[in-house]
Every structure is written in C-alpha cells, then in structure tokens.
Amino acid sequence: DASAPGACASHVRARSGSSCGGRDVGGGRAGLAGPVWKTLPPCRLALREGHSRILLTTQNWQTEGATDGIGKAYAEELASRGLNIILISRNEEKLQVVAKDIADTYKVETDIIVADFSSGREIYLPIREALKDRDIGILVNNVGVFYPYPQYFTQLSEDKLWDIINVNIAAASLMVHVVLPGMVERKKGAIVTISSGSCCKPTPQLAAFSASKAYLDHFSRALQYEYASKGIFVQSLIPFYVATSMTAPSSFLHRCSWLVPSPKVYAHHAVSTLGISKRTTGYWSHSIQFLFAQYMPEWLWVWGANILNRSLRKEALSCTA
C-alpha cells in the first residue's frame, strides 16, 4: 500500500503534473492550492451548464474506489460534464495516476486526498482541514469493504468485521458530517451514497455487508427528508452486480453484460438520475431486479441468494487454489 493513515491534499492541473503543498498533518500534508471552486446545484439542468464545480468521491477500501470500479467511472462521467474533481482513497500512487488522467482527458481541475478509512476516527480531522473553505457541490460516498467472497459470518475475521463497521458505516456517515454544513450554508448541494442491491432483504453469506448497506440506504433516505427543504438533494444509489474487480474476469457475471454492466456504462446511466430520483438502482436492468426483489417473498430471496453466493464462493476458491 502506497499510503498511510492521515490525509494528503494534492493539486493536479489539466495540463500539468501534480504537486503536494500545505502543512504536515497526520503523516501527510493538508491544504489545497488552486482556483476558486464553484458548487453544483443538484439538478439535471445544472449538469448541462458547463460551470466549474466539485465532486468529492471516497474510496471503496480493498477492492475498488476513487481509483477503480464504480468510483472512478462516476468521477470520469461527471468530469466529462465539466466538473472539477477531488478524489479520496488510500493509495497515493493510484490517486496521482487517475487524477492526472482525468485532468488531461477532460480538461478539468483535480485534487487528491490520501486517507485510509479503516484507520478509524483520527483521519477525519486532517480531512476536515484539507477541505476547509472548499465549496463541495457533490459528495459521492463510494466507500465500502466487501467480503473476499460470500461466506458464513463466523468465517469472517474480526479485523474484517471492524473494517466493515469503520468503512461501510462510519466513513460514509462522517464524510457527510464533514461536508453537509457547508452545503446547508450555501443552500445547495448533492450527496450520493452508493448502497447495494443486497440491502433489499436479509442476504445470507453476506450478512454483515448487506446489513451495512441497508444502513446506508436508510441513512440516505432519512437525510433527504431532513434536508430537502434546505436545498440539499440526497440520493440512495442501489446497484446490483457491476463488472468490477469484485467479480473475477472469468465469472459468469461478466458474460451477462445487459444484466451486469461495466462501471463506465453503469456510471453514465446513474449520473442521469442525479437530482431526479431520490432512491434508484441507477440502471434499467437493475431496476427490474429491484422490482422483483421488493415484491418476492423473503424465503425466495434467501433461496436465490444462497444458490448465487455458493456458486460465487466456489468460483472464487477455485481461482485461488
């Protein structure tokens, strides 16, 4: 891992390399240099106006995040619409590469903050300092820990359980706590929290993961009720399977592109729902799956989940054998 606990803010311009400035904080450096950033009113029309705005996206610890999978694709999609980007993840080397690639490709401003959300509470003060006086228009919480493969609860290590709590639940909540006051003060902003289709019903062999994603779904929906009148749009995004590094390239899931889209295809569809749908899967075939999940009896969901997860576990174990 190229990073350490703490936060490091680094600025990358559209046509140049990156530099890291500011004072030392928690093993890294905080303090962002650069132009004044404008905010994004959370509506579809605003995405088309072409103004300079910010997106903040947080890491998906271990498997994907701001530098991979849905997080990277979502950042690229909004950068293609003219938004300036701040990426947060724990791998500084990957962050630098992705930030420069986005800046060069889409001619927007990018910044990075290096932070390991599994480290617990101490990382948030440096993050607050790094984001101080920055107008965050959109927060995308793509933060999460997944199982190495579906397995029974007692087979998970205690470290993995703490990571699920610290990353899936605490990090998403505290990042909202960091940026929401500024949005309320400006009376505009959007928060997108990426949950999971496994939150629909209790999902065996993913018990802790699905429960943490159910928390994110309920948390987002409650925030929407609390802050909609203050000009804040809060979206709960509930994807089913997307062809990321979580699924092996040889997996049968990768062979069903209409059912399991690539991160790029998924992000393109999901961004089009921003400011319109408060709770959505973000993709048409996932909406069909969600509809069935909502209305099927729980025993049928559990039966299907057990079959799918046993198959995925068997495939994962055969790949590592």
Describe this structure in words.
It is found in: Mitochondrion. It comes from Papio anubis. Interacts with STYXL1. This is Inactive hydroxysteroid dehydrogenase-like protein 1. Its main location: mitochondrion. The chain has 321 residues and is of the alpha/beta class. The chain is 41% helix and 15% strand. It has nine helices and eleven strands. The chain has helices at residues 44-47, 69-79, 92-106, 124-131, 158-186, 207-227, 263-271, 284-295, 298-320; strands spanning 9-12, 18-20, 23-25, 28-30, 53-57, 83-89, 110-114, 138-141, 189-194, 232-237, 279-280. The protein has a nine-stranded mixed β-sheet with strand order 2-1-7-6-5-8-9-10-11, with helices on both faces. α5 (158-186) runs parallel beside α6. The longest helix has 29 residues, at 158-186. Residues 1-7, 9-52 and 60-65 have low confidence and may be disordered.
